[in-house]
Amino acid sequence: MSEVPLHHILFVSTALFFIGMYGFFTRRNMITMLMAIELMLNSVNINFIAFNKYLFPEKMDGIFFTIFIIAIAAAEAAVAIAIIINLYRSHKSIDVEEASEMKY
Amino acid sequence: MNEALLLMKPELIVTVIIFILLILHVARENSSPAYLLNLINGLLFINFLCGFFFNREGTLFGDMYVTNGLIVLEKNILNLGMLLISLQATDWLKKKDFIVEFYVLLLTTLLGMFFMLSSNNLLMFYLGLELSSIPLAALANFELEKRKSSEAAMKFIMSSAFSSGLLLFGISMLYGTTGTLNFAQLAMLIDGNPLQLFSFILLLAGFGFKISAVPFHLWTADVYEGSPVAVTSYLSVISKGAILFVMASVLFTVFKPLVETWYNMLYLLAVLTMIIGNLFAIRQQNLKRFLAFSSIAQVGFILIGMSGSSQEATASVIYFVLIYVFSNLGAFGVIALVSAQTGKEEIDDYKGFYLSNPMLALVMTLSLFSLAGIPPTAGFFGKFFLLMAGAGKGNFVLITIAALNMVISLYYYLRIVKVMFMEKNETPMEKLQISLFPRISLLTCMAGIILIGFTTLLYDYIFSLSTSF
Amino acid sequence: MIAITLLLLPVIFAIILLLAPAASSRRIALIGSIISFSITAFAYSQYLQEDFTKLNFDVSWASAFGIRFNIGMDGISLILVLLTALLYPVIIASTSRTVISNPKAFYSLMMLMQLGLMGVFMAKDAFLFYVFYELTLIPVYFICAVWGGDRSIPITLKFFIYTLAGSLLMLIAIIYLYFKTPGSHTFDIQAFYQLTLTPVEQGWIFWAFFLAFAVKIPIFPFHSWQPDTYTVSPMAGTMLLAGLMLKMGIYGLIRFILPIVPLGLEDWVDFAMVLCIIGIVYASLIAWQQQDLKRLIAYSSIAHVGLIAAGVLAANTAGLQGAIIQMFNHGINVVALFFMIDIIENRYGTRWMDELGGIAGQMKKLGVLFMIVMLGSIGLPLTNGFVGEFLLLMGMYVFNPWAAAFAGLTLILGAVYMFRLYRNVFLGEVKDHKMTTSDVAGWEGFILIPLCAIVIVIGIFPSILLNVSEQPVQQLLQFMNDHKSGVSGL
């Protein structure tokens, strides 16, 4: 059984990236939007791992980058969720449409 | 060992200050706000002074971290801005409970910016960027009880996370095509194949979000309006300045081979940013929102200078950011005072401001003139050098568009001046108390606005530090 | 040394004004302007002795872009600096009667304005010129808007944006020229004179400069800001605008358009000339209809300045010499006229023609003084206006007899509206109004009599100014002709 070729993996990651982007733009629930962003970040992770494994196996740059992305994504999610909870306290909703005090 | 410490001096000092604050917080839980603020501002002042001594050039961490005269200068500019903002914020912070937390978060973002400026590697750059933007979101939500504040924070963290996603995807593509994350090696390996162009566009979009260039600016106005004034001024001056510095260095080193491509993109971005920023600024009623759009328009100007891609371009961008620090903080300083003491932020509240607070009105006017770029304020020289850098490419259409935009911007800046000086108000603002710290800060801004333009020595100094393209 | 002192003095006095008590502001400003005047007089004597060393000052400013802080005076500059220094004490003294709120700010702005004006007339570096040119806008904007009458806010805003939009075009042109200079680029105006530009380029640059200056001068159809601004401004602001600020536009025409883009001028001069002449006739006709004295002088000013601009565009010795001397004369005359209108308004509480009459009977001295200045303004022989207008028309005749003929209408129309003013206001029946105080007071005479003396002295001995500007004008025309032959030789 031969290895999965690189471009298949890239296909998956790119699809994931744009699914995430689509989700970010269409979903109105803040938690779902956050999840959409996580999808985008994970597609990047797949990219890094795949590139590292297939193209540049002699160095570990890609894997390191992935670890950092995961860590930072966690931090980001923590802060974002804290903000969303605070928002929920005042707005009683986590729909972005509800949070529209400020408009042009 | 000693050398390594000196190389990382700015970062280390900021880290030490953060730790001092944390320890202090644990050890002396009920220190009075005044004591804390005096201490912190003192520390920040020391931090600013230290920026001028024992500066070294070199690299660290296997070429991931680099520092040289230019980067030290950029860090000093950020330190200066940080100090000024902190001085301006004292009135507001005195009434708050979480002073230490505020400064810890703020200094963490500063630390992130320092690492970002010193980065010589995409990983380092990314870490610095995130370190500088995640705590800012928390800061935007600093006034927990205000609806606007949490809304602003939500918009900020969402857009910043999204833009990091774009940036990262671009970085991963770049890594895939070249196999390295090091700036110098990337510059050699980039040959402009389609995948790299794609990744470049994503990176530029990421940068565009962070500097709020049109069409990536939608979050800016809401976040600026909703956040506390101190955070808004930090976002518009320090955060934006740092990203602009990095953007210039990334474009000029890593993407040097693609200069033809990005020239056109910057051209387009600059034109759009200026026009949209200016047109929206005209119709604003909230002063912070107004300054948000005006700062968008200023970014358009900076992009013109950056598109010049030359030694002049680097120098002009840095010089302009320095001037922008003074002029924008002059304006924000006044807003901070007014907002802390009266809670008023609408433009109409400033009617007849000159009658009750002549000095503050004068400060605001000078700052706005400087932002508008009217000689002999420093802002004019900043804009002029940017135009000169941009005109080096011989594209006079761009310069003409820029000049037209200067006229539009003049109109709305003058509108504020007019409101302050010449319109009557039924409920005029009372005479405001200007305590020592904000006074120092405002005087520094005024001195900067008036003197920097005439002492172009500073420009020559920055120019000598900038590397040729 | 002299040059830089003239620039530093206003700055120093502005700072003193801000620190000193408000009650003494006017006196301090007056002292400052008189010192400036005596230094300028000294500069004039140095110039006559052909000792130019003290008149120049040159240091590097922003070396990265080759910008130099390069100022100095040739004959043309000297005359305008002299005019500025001469009119400043007059303008400041003229404010003694009016109660000015916040005098510190007012007189500091006046000083700042003087800095800008002196700088424009002395700058030898195009960038410096631009900076000073714009620098004058801020003080004049505040003087007119804050201390002005009703509706002054929207009107001055229009004025500000109008002129700034114009001068940004000039900035673009200057940047363009900068990048055309050979080697490491420079903003030196002399270096701009050496450039050989293609006719197409010259056309564009001509328009960029012309629009900038035309707004300032103002030339028809860019004049719409002017009468309103003059009317609503406080008297000192109007004097600054009419007496000094619009000279910057004409000075710019002489310095930039003639020697740098002679071919552009050649292509477009007919068009520009027609604009000037339309402006002359149009403004004269409107002045004829005015009831408001201040507005009447404002329109007559457009006519006079249009004639000066036309003389410059004719680009020959007579035209240029006439333009330079007439700039000086116009400054003196218009300031004197505005000052006397201010006196009338002060005494009778109105400046509307149909409410006034027979003043000459009540104020004999004023009647005589007004007559002298008015004759100067009309251009009667033996007054200063005659020399200037004669030279201007001669220059235009060389350029095109028809142009001269139409422009000559200004003499006739000028006489018509000025005599109408004199007849209605000074002669005729005494209207039903009360004179509050007496005839021209001592200090007013102290201002007016020297001005009238200048009107006559220059009328009789125009050479004191003409000799000064003779050599630089020849040089300028030389540059222009060299440039033309240089380009056609390509």
List keywords for this structure.
heterotrimer; A: 104 residues; mainly alpha; Helix Hairpins; 3 helices; 74% helix; B: 469 residues; 2 strands; 78% helix
Walk me through the structure.
The complex is a heterotrimer of chains A (about 100), B (about 475) and C (about 500). With about 100 residues, chain A is mostly helical. Chain A has one domain (about 5-90): Helix Hairpins (Orthogonal Bundle). Chain A has 3 helices and no strands. In chain A, helix 1 (about 5-25) packs antiparallel against helix 2 (about 30-55). Chain B is mostly helical. Chain B has a two-stranded antiparallel ribbon with strand order 1-2. The longest helix of chain B has about 30 residues, at about 145-180. The radius of gyration of chain B is 21 Å and the shape is globular. The model of chain B has no long low-confidence stretch (mean pLDDT about 85). By secondary structure, chain C is mainly α. Chain C has helices spanning about 1-20, 25-50, 75-95, 105-120, 125-135, 135-145, 150-180, 190-195, 200-215, 225-230, 235-260, 260-290, 295-315, 315-350, 360, 365-380, 385-400, 400-425, 440-460, 465-490; strands at about 55-60, 65-70. Chain C has a two-stranded antiparallel sheet. The model of chain C has no long low-confidence stretch (mean pLDDT about 85). Chains B and C meet through helix 17, helix 18 and helix 20 of B and helix 5, helix 6 and helix 7 of C.
Summed up, what is this model?
The complex is a heterotrimer of chains A (104), B (469) and C (490). By secondary structure, chain A is an all-alpha fold.
Strand runs of chain A, count:
0
Uncertain residue ranges of chain A:
none
Separation, N- and C-terminal Cα atoms of chain A = 59 Å
Report the biggest beta sheet of chain C as strand number plus sense, adding barrel if it closes: 2 strands, antiparallel
Q: State the order of secondary-structure elements of chain C, H for helix, E for strand.
A: HHEEHHHHHHHHHHHHHHHHHH
Structural class, judged by helices and strands of chain C? Answer: mainly alpha
N/C terminus separation of chain C:
42 Å
